[in-house]
Design a protein that fits this description.
alpha/beta, Thrombin, subunit H
Protein backbone atom coordinates (compact mmCIF):
# COMPACT_ATOMS: atom_id res chain seq x y z
CA UNK A 1 0.00 0.00 0.00
CA UNK A 2 1.33 3.46 -0.93
CA UNK A 3 1.68 6.01 1.88
CA UNK A 4 2.51 9.74 1.63
CA UNK A 5 3.98 12.01 4.31
CA UNK A 6 4.30 15.80 4.13
CA UNK A 7 6.89 16.72 6.76
CA UNK A 8 10.45 15.67 7.53
CA UNK A 9 12.10 15.63 10.94
CA UNK A 10 15.68 16.08 9.81
CA UNK A 11 17.91 16.35 6.72
CA UNK A 12 21.57 15.36 7.04
CA UNK A 13 23.69 14.98 3.92
CA UNK A 14 21.91 12.54 1.63
CA UNK A 15 19.73 11.23 4.47
CA UNK A 16 16.26 12.31 5.49
CA UNK A 17 14.46 11.22 8.66
CA UNK A 18 10.71 10.92 9.28
CA UNK A 19 8.71 9.95 12.35
CA UNK A 20 5.15 8.74 12.96
CA UNK A 21 5.43 6.33 10.02
CA UNK A 22 3.52 3.07 9.78
CA UNK A 23 4.13 -0.27 8.05
CA UNK A 24 7.37 0.81 6.36
CA UNK A 25 9.78 -1.95 5.32
CA UNK A 26 13.58 -1.97 5.19
CA UNK A 27 14.80 -1.45 1.61
CA UNK A 28 11.45 0.00 0.50
CA UNK A 29 11.49 2.42 -2.45
CA UNK A 30 10.64 6.03 -1.67
CA UNK A 31 9.71 8.92 -3.98
CA UNK A 32 10.60 12.40 -2.68
CA UNK A 33 8.93 15.46 -4.26
CA UNK A 34 10.04 18.97 -3.27
CA UNK A 35 7.92 22.12 -3.20
CA UNK A 36 8.69 22.81 -6.88
CA UNK A 37 7.45 19.41 -8.02
CA UNK A 38 10.89 17.89 -8.71
CA UNK A 39 11.02 14.19 -7.87
CA UNK A 40 13.85 11.98 -6.64
CA UNK A 41 14.08 8.37 -5.59
CA UNK A 42 15.24 7.07 -2.24
CA UNK A 43 15.50 3.86 -0.27
CA UNK A 44 14.72 3.06 3.36
CA UNK A 45 17.99 2.15 5.07
CA UNK A 46 16.91 2.20 8.72
CA UNK A 47 13.64 1.44 10.53
CA UNK A 48 13.40 2.14 14.27
CA UNK A 49 10.00 1.88 15.98
CA UNK A 50 7.88 4.50 14.19
CA UNK A 51 10.73 6.49 12.58
CA UNK A 52 12.65 5.75 9.38
CA UNK A 53 15.82 6.98 7.68
CA UNK A 54 15.80 7.30 3.88
CA UNK A 55 18.88 7.51 1.66
CA UNK A 56 18.16 9.90 -1.23
CA UNK A 57 19.57 9.13 -4.69
CA UNK A 58 21.09 12.54 -5.31
CA UNK A 59 21.52 15.87 -3.57
CA UNK A 60 19.16 17.07 -0.82
CA UNK A 61 19.99 20.78 -1.21
CA UNK A 62 16.62 21.54 -2.81
CA UNK A 63 14.64 19.65 -0.13
CA UNK A 64 13.22 21.32 2.98
CA UNK A 65 11.71 19.79 6.10
CA UNK A 66 8.35 21.39 5.23
CA UNK A 67 6.33 21.11 2.02
CA UNK A 68 8.19 17.97 0.91
CA UNK A 69 6.12 14.97 -0.10
CA UNK A 70 7.54 11.55 0.78
CA UNK A 71 5.73 8.71 -0.93
CA UNK A 72 6.44 5.15 0.27
CA UNK A 73 5.86 2.75 -2.63
CA UNK A 74 5.27 -0.36 -0.53
CA UNK A 75 7.76 -2.47 -2.52
CA UNK A 76 11.53 -3.05 -2.76
CA UNK A 77 13.66 -1.59 -5.52
CA UNK A 78 12.78 -3.24 -8.85
CA UNK A 79 13.97 -3.01 -12.46
CA UNK A 80 12.29 -3.99 -15.73
CA UNK A 81 14.04 -6.73 -17.69
CA UNK A 82 13.65 -8.43 -21.06
CA UNK A 83 15.99 -9.88 -23.67
CA UNK A 84 16.20 -6.36 -25.13
CA UNK A 85 18.72 -5.41 -22.42
CA UNK A 86 21.50 -7.10 -24.45
CA UNK A 87 23.66 -4.44 -26.06
CA UNK A 88 22.29 -1.71 -23.77
CA UNK A 89 23.87 0.60 -21.16
CA UNK A 90 22.13 1.54 -17.90
CA UNK A 91 22.92 3.53 -14.80
CA UNK A 92 23.24 1.91 -11.38
CA UNK A 93 19.49 1.83 -10.76
CA UNK A 94 18.61 0.33 -14.13
CA UNK A 95 17.73 3.53 -16.00
CA UNK A 96 18.90 3.66 -19.66
CA UNK A 97 21.76 6.11 -20.36
CA UNK A 98 22.43 5.16 -23.98
CA UNK A 99 19.56 7.18 -25.49
CA UNK A 100 17.75 4.08 -26.75
CA UNK A 101 14.65 4.35 -24.56
CA UNK A 102 13.17 2.45 -21.66
CA UNK A 103 12.94 -1.32 -21.29
CA UNK A 104 9.31 -2.43 -21.26
CA UNK A 105 8.43 -5.70 -19.59
CA UNK A 106 5.35 -7.36 -18.11
CA UNK A 107 7.27 -8.01 -14.90
CA UNK A 108 9.66 -6.09 -12.68
CA UNK A 109 12.38 -7.87 -10.73
CA UNK A 110 13.57 -7.23 -7.17
CA UNK A 111 17.23 -6.15 -7.25
CA UNK A 112 17.89 -8.08 -4.04
CA UNK A 113 17.45 -11.28 -6.03
CA UNK A 114 15.89 -14.54 -5.04
CA UNK A 115 17.47 -16.88 -2.49
CA UNK A 116 19.00 -20.04 -3.97
CA UNK A 117 18.40 -23.23 -2.04
CA UNK A 118 21.89 -24.78 -1.54
CA UNK A 119 20.40 -28.21 -2.30
CA UNK A 120 19.25 -26.94 -5.71
CA UNK A 121 22.76 -25.85 -6.74
CA UNK A 122 24.63 -27.74 -9.47
CA UNK A 123 28.35 -28.34 -8.92
CA UNK A 124 30.33 -26.31 -11.53
CA UNK A 125 32.23 -28.39 -14.08
CA UNK A 126 32.73 -26.90 -17.57
CA UNK A 127 35.32 -24.19 -18.15
CA UNK A 128 35.14 -20.75 -19.75
CA UNK A 129 38.04 -19.90 -22.06
CA UNK A 130 39.35 -16.35 -21.56
CA UNK A 131 42.13 -16.55 -24.16
CA UNK A 132 44.67 -15.56 -21.47
CA UNK A 133 47.24 -18.31 -20.88
CA UNK A 134 47.98 -17.71 -17.21
CA UNK A 135 44.25 -17.86 -16.38
CA UNK A 136 43.24 -20.68 -18.74
CA UNK A 137 46.27 -22.81 -17.98
CA UNK A 138 46.90 -22.30 -14.28
CA UNK A 139 43.73 -20.91 -12.65
CA UNK A 140 41.03 -22.05 -15.05
CA UNK A 141 37.70 -20.24 -14.80
CA UNK A 142 34.86 -22.74 -14.34
CA UNK A 143 31.30 -21.99 -15.40
CA UNK A 144 29.30 -21.01 -12.28
CA UNK A 145 32.41 -20.05 -10.28
CA UNK A 146 33.22 -16.91 -8.26
CA UNK A 147 36.82 -15.95 -9.13
CA UNK A 148 37.92 -12.44 -8.04
CA UNK A 149 40.83 -10.39 -9.39
CA UNK A 150 42.95 -8.75 -6.67
CA UNK A 151 44.63 -5.68 -8.11
CA UNK A 152 46.18 -2.40 -6.96
CA UNK A 153 45.89 1.25 -7.91
CA UNK A 154 47.53 1.90 -11.27
CA UNK A 155 47.62 -1.75 -12.34
CA UNK A 156 45.88 -2.69 -15.62
CA UNK A 157 42.82 -4.46 -14.14
CA UNK A 158 40.50 -2.45 -16.39
CA UNK A 159 42.37 -3.62 -19.49
CA UNK A 160 42.31 -7.21 -18.21
CA UNK A 161 38.55 -7.00 -17.55
CA UNK A 162 37.94 -5.60 -21.04
CA UNK A 163 40.07 -8.34 -22.61
CA UNK A 164 38.18 -11.07 -20.74
CA UNK A 165 34.84 -9.60 -21.86
CA UNK A 166 36.08 -9.41 -25.45
CA UNK A 167 37.56 -12.90 -25.62
CA UNK A 168 35.54 -15.06 -23.21
CA UNK A 169 33.73 -17.99 -24.80
CA UNK A 170 32.26 -21.35 -23.93
CA UNK A 171 33.23 -24.42 -25.91
CA UNK A 172 30.09 -26.11 -27.19
CA UNK A 173 29.58 -29.86 -27.00
CA UNK A 174 28.24 -31.94 -29.88
CA UNK A 175 27.84 -28.85 -32.05
CA UNK A 176 25.10 -27.35 -29.84
CA UNK A 177 24.66 -23.59 -30.00
CA UNK A 178 25.63 -21.93 -26.70
CA UNK A 179 23.81 -18.75 -25.68
CA UNK A 180 26.46 -16.65 -23.95
CA UNK A 181 26.02 -13.16 -22.51
CA UNK A 182 28.12 -10.79 -20.42
CA UNK A 183 26.98 -8.39 -17.70
CA UNK A 184 29.45 -5.62 -16.93
CA UNK A 185 28.95 -3.56 -13.75
CA UNK A 186 31.19 -0.56 -13.04
CA UNK A 187 30.97 1.20 -9.66
CA UNK A 188 32.50 4.59 -8.96
CA UNK A 189 34.37 4.75 -12.28
CA UNK A 190 35.56 7.91 -14.01
CA UNK A 191 33.89 8.96 -17.24
CA UNK A 192 37.06 8.23 -19.26
CA UNK A 193 37.20 4.69 -17.83
CA UNK A 194 33.59 4.03 -18.82
CA UNK A 195 34.33 5.41 -22.29
CA UNK A 196 37.31 3.04 -22.57
CA UNK A 197 35.13 0.01 -21.82
CA UNK A 198 32.39 1.08 -24.22
CA UNK A 199 34.80 1.76 -27.08
CA UNK A 200 36.73 -1.49 -26.50
CA UNK A 201 33.52 -3.55 -26.66
CA UNK A 202 32.27 -1.63 -29.70
CA UNK A 203 35.50 -2.04 -31.69
CA UNK A 204 35.61 -5.75 -30.80
CA UNK A 205 32.03 -6.26 -32.07
CA UNK A 206 30.89 -7.87 -28.79
CA UNK A 207 28.63 -5.03 -27.67
CA UNK A 208 25.50 -6.87 -28.82
CA UNK A 209 25.99 -9.55 -26.11
CA UNK A 210 27.10 -7.17 -23.32
CA UNK A 211 24.82 -5.42 -20.82
CA UNK A 212 26.50 -2.53 -19.00
CA UNK A 213 25.50 -1.03 -15.63
CA UNK A 214 27.62 2.04 -14.97
CA UNK A 215 27.78 4.10 -11.79
CA UNK A 216 30.06 7.10 -12.28
CA UNK A 217 32.23 8.53 -9.51
CA UNK A 218 30.03 11.68 -9.42
CA UNK A 219 26.75 9.73 -9.25
CA UNK A 220 24.83 9.39 -5.96
CA UNK A 221 26.58 7.05 -3.54
CA UNK A 222 23.40 5.05 -2.89
CA UNK A 223 23.33 4.19 -6.59
CA UNK A 224 26.70 2.53 -6.08
CA UNK A 225 25.07 0.12 -3.61
CA UNK A 226 22.26 -0.72 -6.06
CA UNK A 227 24.44 -1.06 -9.22
CA UNK A 228 25.90 -4.55 -8.57
CA UNK A 229 22.48 -5.78 -7.44
CA UNK A 230 20.87 -4.49 -10.65
CA UNK A 231 23.59 -6.25 -12.68
CA UNK A 232 23.17 -9.55 -10.82
CA UNK A 233 19.38 -9.36 -11.15
CA UNK A 234 19.81 -8.98 -14.92
CA UNK A 235 22.21 -11.95 -14.86
CA UNK A 236 19.66 -14.09 -12.98
CA UNK A 237 16.99 -13.17 -15.52
CA UNK A 238 19.17 -14.07 -18.54
CA UNK A 239 20.51 -17.26 -16.93
CA UNK A 240 17.42 -18.76 -15.33
CA UNK A 241 14.64 -17.43 -17.57
CA UNK A 242 16.36 -17.07 -20.95
CA UNK A 243 18.65 -20.13 -20.44
CA UNK A 244 21.87 -18.22 -21.17
CA UNK A 245 25.33 -18.72 -19.75
CA UNK A 246 26.24 -15.37 -18.21
CA UNK A 247 29.63 -13.99 -17.19
CA UNK A 248 29.35 -11.09 -14.71
CA UNK A 249 32.34 -8.77 -14.29
CA UNK A 250 32.14 -6.18 -11.49
CA UNK A 251 34.67 -3.39 -10.93
CA UNK A 252 35.57 -2.00 -8.45
CA UNK A 253 34.37 -3.82 -5.31
CA UNK A 254 36.60 -1.54 -3.21
CA UNK A 255 34.51 1.46 -4.36
CA UNK A 256 31.41 -0.48 -3.33
CA UNK A 257 32.92 -1.21 0.10
CA UNK A 258 33.82 2.44 0.61
CA UNK A 259 30.24 3.41 -0.26
CA UNK A 260 29.02 0.95 2.39
CA UNK A 261 31.42 2.50 4.91
CA UNK A 262 30.22 6.03 4.12
CA UNK A 263 26.55 5.10 4.47
CA UNK A 264 27.30 3.21 7.69
CA UNK A 265 29.01 6.32 9.06
CA UNK A 266 26.02 8.49 8.11
CA UNK A 267 23.79 6.03 9.98
CA UNK A 268 26.09 6.41 13.01
CA UNK A 269 26.71 2.67 13.25
CA UNK A 270 29.54 1.28 15.37
CA UNK A 271 32.48 0.72 12.96
CA UNK A 272 34.44 -2.50 12.65
CA UNK A 273 37.85 -3.11 11.01
CA UNK A 274 39.25 0.09 9.44
CA UNK A 275 35.90 1.81 9.74
CA UNK A 276 33.96 -0.68 7.63
CA UNK A 277 30.59 -1.86 8.96
CA UNK A 278 30.45 -5.13 10.88
CA UNK A 279 28.12 -6.61 8.27
CA UNK A 280 30.64 -6.18 5.41
CA UNK A 281 31.13 -9.96 5.15
CA UNK A 282 27.42 -10.78 4.89
CA UNK A 283 26.85 -7.88 2.50
CA UNK A 284 29.59 -9.07 0.11
CA UNK A 285 28.29 -12.63 0.43
CA UNK A 286 24.81 -11.42 -0.60
CA UNK A 287 26.42 -10.39 -3.91
CA UNK A 288 28.90 -13.20 -4.53
CA UNK A 289 26.56 -16.05 -3.61
CA UNK A 290 24.15 -15.08 -6.39
CA UNK A 291 26.55 -16.74 -8.84
CA UNK A 292 26.22 -20.42 -9.63
CA UNK A 293 24.16 -23.06 -11.44
CA UNK A 294 20.81 -24.69 -10.65
CA UNK A 295 20.04 -28.36 -11.24
CA UNK A 296 16.78 -27.73 -13.09
CA UNK A 297 18.05 -24.78 -15.19
CA UNK A 298 20.19 -24.69 -18.33
CA UNK A 299 21.81 -21.30 -17.68
CA UNK A 300 24.61 -20.34 -15.31
CA UNK A 301 26.12 -17.25 -13.67
CA UNK A 302 29.90 -16.94 -13.44
CA UNK A 303 31.26 -14.00 -11.44
CA UNK A 304 34.56 -12.13 -11.68
CA UNK A 305 34.63 -9.29 -9.12
CA UNK A 306 37.62 -6.95 -9.44
CA UNK A 307 38.92 -5.11 -6.39
CA UNK A 308 41.84 -2.76 -5.86
CA UNK A 309 43.76 -3.42 -2.66
CA UNK A 310 44.69 -0.16 -0.86
CA UNK A 311 48.50 0.00 -0.64
CA UNK A 312 48.57 -3.47 -2.29
CA UNK A 313 47.57 -4.92 1.10
CA UNK A 314 46.00 -8.33 0.59
CA UNK A 315 45.04 -8.41 4.30
CA UNK A 316 42.77 -5.36 3.84
CA UNK A 317 39.18 -6.24 4.92
CA UNK A 318 37.69 -6.27 1.42
CA UNK A 319 40.15 -8.73 -0.24
CA UNK A 320 40.43 -10.65 3.03
CA UNK A 321 36.69 -11.28 3.31
CA UNK A 322 36.32 -11.79 -0.44
CA UNK A 323 38.86 -14.60 -0.26
CA UNK A 324 36.73 -16.42 2.33
CA UNK A 325 33.57 -16.24 0.21
CA UNK A 326 34.90 -16.93 -3.29
CA UNK A 327 36.58 -19.96 -4.87
CA UNK A 328 40.08 -18.68 -5.45
CA UNK A 329 41.67 -15.46 -6.68
CA UNK A 330 43.74 -13.96 -9.50
CA UNK A 331 46.42 -11.67 -8.04
CA UNK A 332 48.06 -8.92 -10.11
CA UNK A 333 51.71 -8.09 -9.38
CA UNK A 334 53.21 -4.60 -9.36
CA UNK A 335 56.67 -6.10 -9.77
CA UNK A 336 55.70 -7.85 -13.02
CA UNK A 337 53.94 -4.70 -14.25
CA UNK A 338 57.15 -2.73 -13.69
CA UNK A 339 58.90 -5.33 -15.87
CA UNK A 340 56.49 -4.35 -18.67
CA UNK A 341 54.68 -7.70 -18.46
CA UNK A 342 50.96 -7.66 -19.35
CA UNK A 343 48.83 -9.10 -17.88
CA UNK A 344 50.93 -8.91 -14.69
CA UNK A 345 49.35 -12.00 -13.09
CA UNK A 346 51.28 -13.26 -10.07
CA UNK A 347 50.92 -16.99 -10.60
CA UNK A 348 52.02 -18.33 -7.20
CA UNK A 349 49.41 -16.70 -4.89
CA UNK A 350 46.69 -17.14 -7.54
CA UNK A 351 44.49 -20.23 -7.67
CA UNK A 352 41.14 -21.58 -8.77
CA UNK A 353 39.66 -24.02 -6.24
CA UNK A 354 37.20 -25.48 -8.76
CA UNK A 355 39.78 -25.90 -11.53
CA UNK A 356 40.56 -29.54 -10.74
CA UNK A 357 37.01 -30.67 -11.58
CA UNK A 358 36.72 -28.78 -14.87
CA UNK A 359 39.96 -29.62 -16.68
CA UNK A 360 41.62 -32.72 -18.08
CA UNK A 361 40.28 -35.37 -20.42
CA UNK A 362 36.71 -34.66 -21.52
CA UNK A 363 37.01 -30.98 -20.63
CA UNK A 364 40.28 -29.39 -21.83
CA UNK A 365 43.05 -31.89 -22.60
CA UNK A 366 44.36 -34.97 -20.82
CA UNK A 367 47.69 -33.36 -19.93
CA UNK A 368 46.26 -30.13 -18.48
CA UNK A 369 46.28 -31.05 -14.74
CA UNK A 370 49.84 -32.39 -14.83
CA UNK A 371 51.16 -29.48 -16.93
CA UNK A 372 49.57 -26.93 -14.56
CA UNK A 373 51.04 -28.66 -11.48
CA UNK A 374 54.50 -28.86 -13.05
CA UNK A 375 54.50 -25.20 -14.14
CA UNK A 376 53.47 -24.11 -10.64
CA UNK A 377 56.12 -26.30 -9.03
CA UNK A 378 58.90 -25.22 -11.39
CA UNK A 379 58.08 -21.50 -11.14
CA UNK A 380 58.06 -21.82 -7.35
CA UNK A 381 61.55 -23.28 -7.55
CA UNK A 382 62.58 -20.31 -9.71
CA UNK A 383 61.86 -17.94 -6.81
CA UNK A 384 64.19 -19.95 -4.54
CA UNK A 385 66.95 -19.90 -7.14
CA UNK A 386 66.55 -16.15 -7.69
CA UNK A 387 66.93 -15.55 -3.95
CA UNK A 388 70.10 -17.68 -3.93
CA UNK A 389 71.46 -15.85 -7.00
CA UNK A 390 71.16 -12.52 -5.17
CA UNK A 391 73.46 -13.87 -2.46
CA UNK A 392 76.15 -15.79 -4.37
CA UNK A 393 75.70 -14.38 -7.88
CA UNK A 394 74.21 -16.04 -10.95
CA UNK A 395 77.58 -17.13 -12.37
CA UNK A 396 78.30 -19.36 -9.35
CA UNK A 397 75.02 -21.25 -9.57
CA UNK A 398 75.08 -24.91 -10.65
CA UNK A 399 73.91 -25.69 -14.20
CA UNK A 400 70.55 -27.03 -12.98
CA UNK A 401 69.75 -23.74 -11.22
CA UNK A 402 70.79 -21.74 -14.27
CA UNK A 403 68.23 -23.69 -16.29
CA UNK A 404 65.60 -22.81 -13.71
CA UNK A 405 66.50 -19.13 -14.10
CA UNK A 406 66.15 -19.45 -17.86
CA UNK A 407 62.83 -21.23 -17.40
CA UNK A 408 61.64 -18.37 -15.15
CA UNK A 409 62.57 -15.71 -17.70
CA UNK A 410 60.93 -17.60 -20.56
CA UNK A 411 57.83 -18.39 -18.45
CA UNK A 412 57.22 -14.72 -17.71
CA UNK A 413 58.06 -13.60 -21.24
CA UNK A 414 56.19 -16.26 -23.25
CA UNK A 415 53.49 -17.70 -21.00
CA UNK A 416 52.41 -14.89 -18.65
CA UNK A 417 53.07 -12.04 -21.05
CA UNK A 418 50.77 -11.64 -24.01
CA UNK A 419 49.40 -8.80 -26.08
CA UNK A 420 46.13 -7.03 -25.17
CA UNK A 421 44.67 -8.23 -28.49
CA UNK A 422 46.16 -11.75 -28.35
CA UNK A 423 43.55 -14.47 -27.91
CA UNK A 424 45.12 -17.88 -27.23
CA UNK A 425 43.26 -21.15 -27.57
CA UNK A 426 43.55 -23.69 -24.75
CA UNK A 427 45.62 -25.94 -27.06
CA UNK A 428 48.07 -23.08 -27.69
CA UNK A 429 48.38 -22.41 -23.95
CA UNK A 430 49.19 -26.05 -23.13
CA UNK A 431 51.64 -26.31 -26.03
CA UNK A 432 53.51 -23.23 -24.79
CA UNK A 433 53.63 -24.87 -21.36
CA UNK A 434 55.30 -27.99 -22.80
CA UNK A 435 57.75 -25.84 -24.76
CA UNK A 436 58.83 -24.11 -21.55
CA UNK A 437 59.12 -27.35 -19.59
CA UNK A 438 61.49 -28.69 -22.24
CA UNK A 439 64.06 -26.16 -20.93
CA UNK A 440 64.39 -28.14 -17.71
CA UNK A 441 66.09 -31.53 -17.31
CA UNK A 442 63.61 -34.42 -17.64
CA UNK A 443 64.45 -35.68 -14.15
CA UNK A 444 63.15 -32.36 -12.73
CA UNK A 445 59.67 -32.94 -14.23
CA UNK A 446 58.46 -34.97 -11.27
CA UNK A 447 54.82 -33.80 -11.54
CA UNK A 448 54.37 -35.22 -15.06
CA UNK A 449 53.30 -38.74 -15.94
CA UNK A 450 55.95 -40.58 -18.01
CA UNK A 451 53.36 -41.36 -20.70
CA UNK A 452 52.61 -37.67 -21.10
CA UNK A 453 56.31 -36.85 -21.30
CA UNK A 454 56.67 -39.48 -24.01
CA UNK A 455 53.68 -38.13 -25.93
CA UNK A 456 54.16 -34.36 -25.67
CA UNK A 457 57.84 -33.73 -24.83
CA UNK A 458 59.69 -36.21 -27.03
CA UNK A 459 59.58 -34.09 -30.20
CA UNK A 460 60.57 -30.80 -28.54
Amino acid sequence: MKREYLQLDRIEGALIELSDTHDVGYGEVVEIENSEGNKKLGRVIKVEENSVVVQVFGSTTDISTKNTKVNFKGKPFEISLSKDILGRTFNGIGGPIDGMGEIYSKESYNVNGRPINPVAREYPRDYIQTGISSIDGLMTLIRGQKLPIFSGNGLPHNELAAQIVRQAKIKSKDGEKVKFGIIFAAMGVRHDEAHFFRETFRKSHVLDRVVMYINYADDPIMERIIAPRSALTAAEYLAFEENMHVLVIMTDITSYGEALREISSLREEVPSRRGYPGYLYSDLASLYERAGMLKDKVGSITLIPILTMPNDDITHPIPDLTGYITEGQIVLSRELYQKNIYPPINVLPSLSRLMKDGIGEGFTREDHPDVANQLFSSYSKVQEVRSLAQIIGEDDLPDRDKKYLEFGRQFEDKFVKQDFNENRDMEDTLNIGWELLSILPVEELDRLDSKLIEKYLKNR
